Amino acid sequence: MCNLHKPSFLRNALSLGYDLKNHMTLNGVPVGVPLDDVMPACQGDPKAAKTLCHGPVRGPHTSVDVYGFWEGEASDGKPLVTSMWASMNSEGTLIRLVGVRLAPSAALPVLFALRDGLGMPSSMDLWSVQWQTRDNNVFLMSGSDLPTLAIATKN
């Protein structure tokens, strides 16, 4: 049973849930929505952004760095989220994946919070843990030295 709608899920860690149109979100960025509907391109120094904005579209996976996100605070006092990105579909129009890089000290607390919120993982291996929801969305946590959390839609 998924309790992502409860505000206590991952409290003080990450903003993870659903928007009003039932799109899964990670730190305010939904999957399955056009990039330009979610946030504008950054103006000026992106690292100084106070609201969500994106850097230039790059690479064969049409991805963008996201700025102006909530960093949170890890148990060691450092930022919990150190970077954030979004990847689009092959046409570069719809966001299909949103990812964050986590502070190493946050990996286990986030993993346990996901387990509490989503239940047993759908699959696990040496490098990653994955949950697939009934609505065909995927939560993926991977890495060891540089842990990442990503959400994606299969639609």
In short:
With 155 residues, the chain is mostly beta strands.
Q: How does this model look, in words?
A:
With 155 residues, the chain is mainly beta. The chain has one domain. It contains two helices and eleven strands; from the N terminus they run βββαββββαββββ. A hairpin with a 2-residue loop joins strand 2 and strand 3. The chain is globular. 32% of the residues are buried.
Number of helices: 2
Strand order of the largest sheet: 4-5-6-7-11-10-9-8
Structural class by helix and strand composition? mainly beta
Radius of gyration: 15 Å
Strand content: 25-35%
Mean pLDDT: 85
CA distance, first residue to last residue: 21 Å
Number of strands: 11
Instruction: Sketch the major β-sheet.
Output: 8 strands, antiparallel
Helix/strand layout:
Elements: E1 16-18, E2 24-26, E3 29-30, H1 35-38, E4 53-54, E5 63-67, E6 81-88, E7 95-102, H2 107-118, E8 123-124, E9 128-132, E10 137-142, E11 148-153
Antiparallel strand pairs: 1-2, 2-3, 4-5, 5-6, 6-7, 7-11, 8-9, 9-10, 10-11
